[in-house]
Structure prediction request, 229 residues.
Amino acid sequence: MICFVAIRHRSVMSTQKVVQFHQQLRESASIFRQSPRFFAFIALSCVGYPMMTYLAKLVPIYLSENQYSGEWFAWWQINYGVGAMVCGLMIVKVMDKVSHQQLMLVSMACISLLLCVMTITLSPLSIVLVALLIGVFNVTNRIARVNKLHHEVDNSVRGRVDGGMKLFTTTLQSASYVVIAYLAHYQLTEFGFAIGTFVIMLATLAMWLLHRDSLVSTGQTRFTKPVSR
Prediction:
């Protein structure tokens, strides 16, 4: 409080340009049209986040239906958090040696493999142990994606790009909750893990095809805001 009072704040008046909503939508669409395959690669890597929220709802329902203790879910959350912290300890050194797009692709592939293991075993112990590694690779994927966007996308349009990706992930999240509701209603919760694995594997395959065909930008281009008409 004392520091706040002691610091003198100098107000600066700025003019704000009013842009109509439909014009903003056209500008946002034109940004994504500059390189649709690049943004498709980024969007596919975003599938990892709604998948984690999907598992956060699916795992406790599965454990509860099979009469497992709530401690297993608590350990699942703890291990996921520990995995995220482990990623923070080594991510800087890893990104110095591996490109962002390769790191995103490998992380998604590892998440796919781990979900396969979880789907095959479906034991509380395997679910808890796999959560540790999923935490590592999911955060690795997210950090690599943020850094990729930082290098490729101009700051003037970064908000539009992040908004588009957020809309995409929110839509997937909403759809995943509907899937869980139907599975729980018909007592088919265990099939939810197979569905999640299939979606992640499909996204990883599409990312690999884009990366293999060299359709992802390598850093020479920065996406800028289109001129308003």
